[in-house]
Write a structure and sequence with these properties.
The complex is a heterodimer of chains A (215) and B (114).
Chain A (H helix, E strand, L loop, with lengths): L3 H11 L3 H8 E2 L4 E2 L10 E2 L2 E2 L7 H5 L2 E5 L5 E5 L16 H7 L3 H23 L14 H8 L20 H12 L7 H26 L1
Antiparallel strand pairs in A: 1-2, 3-4, 5-6
Chain B lengths: L2 H4 L5 H18 L1 E2 L2 E4 L5 H14 L4 E6 L2 E7 L2 H8 L4 E9 L2 E11 L2
Antiparallel strand pairs in B: 1-2, 3-4, 5-6
The chains are: A mainly alpha (215), B alpha+beta (114).
Amino acid sequence: MAGPHEILGMSRVLGIGTTEFLSLYTDNGGTTLRSEADGRCVFLTPSGCRVHPRRPLVCRLYPLGRTTNERAEERFAVFPAQPDCEAVVGRDGTVSSFLESQGVGPYLGWSRRYGELYRRMLGLLDRLDITGKIDAPAAATPAEAAQAGSGSAGSGQEPDRAPLSSWQDVDASLDEYCAAKGLAVPAEIDEAIALHLRAIEEWLDDLESRLTLAA
Amino acid sequence: MGKQEDRKIVTRRDVLKLAGTAAAFCTSFGFLHGSQTGGAVPSKNSKSLIVKELQERWKQAEFKWYNGNKLLGTSPFPARVLEHLQSDEMATVEFKFFRGGNLLRNMGTIEAKH
């Protein structure tokens, strides 16, 4: 699993943009990191992880796993050690001390923020009455559907490597958003993530207002 | 229809993008309906742990019908359906209304593993 903010961070470690990163290193519509034929992560080398400074939350948490329920109650569990994992796993210390040592704080915060936006999306999808409010006669052409559903990573990608949503491509999203708003594209990763969240929020605000008007 | 009016319409493209983004976030972050998982490392062992935990959640399942906020009635899932939900197989749930054998409304289909 890799969220847009994590893809942004990893792409900067490699010195490339998110469009290129999505194309080269992700599968399943840009939602997971690519694996080698033997199952290894594409970034795992004999000398370690190539993107370690900006490794995703899932890697930071291991060997812990995290679940939250609909009331946002958080639980952590210990997964059995992977047979080929060289990490030393013990039971000393606490969950919170482990999380702190792995620098998960900002990643959990961003994950929660994207989670809030995700729940808004589900709410909007629930509100959509497909037969009543959508511009049904104007059937989407394949090109239109591709533009709406995929990112700007290029048409030469294999289908499962094209992002499911253009929002996954943070660089392209922010280029477009900043150009429309007359803003400078943030150079810092944290600022870029904050602006990415804001841009998605505004997009949802706009969709929500149009849905309300159409009701 | 003028440009200003067009802006008020939720288009098919909007819906495609919304659904695509929700699907992408669902997979990228491990979000489920109303819940969130993160840090689940896919392996046979961890998968069996997750399956076990989810099986425990499926000890009871029921439909609820509401009129606004008023609960009109509940109905538990049949035992064989619950048994299927506890397995690690794909479950398909269809919501359809019929009258006299004719389909009045198809509310949609959910396909998911627990």
